[in-house]
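Q: Convert this sequence to structure tokens.
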Amino acid sequence: MVVQWVKTEWTKQSRGAPGATRRNAVPVGFALPHLMPAVHEVRLEEWNDFEPVWSKESTEIDRIALTLREDDDVLSVQLQDTMHATPRRWNRPSPVRLARGEWVRWQLNHRWQRPRDGGYNYLLTTLNLAYGSPRDAKVFLGTPTRHVDEQTYLR
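A:
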């Protein structure tokens, strides 16, 4: 299994043009550095001109943010909403079931107020998860087998 978290963060400056144009061009999936099982995280932040920054890869899956259950070569995937920010999601989608060779893209967005100045930060979290060993490092550049879009309008 390969997990790729893509986290894009911005402020009000990137809510309207021309900042929103740049933000909306940010990818939600990246080519993998290798095909071995791993957890990768890529951060894209407005204050760094949305340049991708890869964190150190891991083999540990965050069991708080992600619930996985494997049964008879089918993987059940449930992304948890662990952010203490708006909007709170009380009705969540059912877990996604993947067969080997399939992958899911699951997206959530949030907004929270900064205590230091009262401004707002925004975050789009994208989970790309491939079950089994992907055959192509560009797997997350294509169309997912399953797509769960929990994005909502953020004021």
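The beta strands are 2-11, 38-45, 53-54, 66-71, 74-79, 96-99, 103-113, 120-130, 146-150.
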